[in-house]
Amino acid sequence: MSTTTEATRVAAPRRLGPATLGLRQGRLELRQFLRSRESVVFTMLFPVVLILIFASIFKGEIGGGVRFTQYFVTGMIATGLMTVGFQSLAIQIPIERDRGVLKRLRGTPMPKWVYFAGKVIMVAVIGVAETVLLLAVAVLLFDLRLPDTGAKWLTFAWVAALGITACTLCGIAFSSLARSGRSAPSTVTPVALILQFISGVFFVFTDLPTWMQQVAAIFPLKWMCQGLRSVFLPASFGAQEPAGSYELGKVALVLAAWCIVGLVLCLRTFRWTTRRDG
Question: What per-residue confidence (pLDDT) applies to 32?
Answer without folding.
Answer: 85
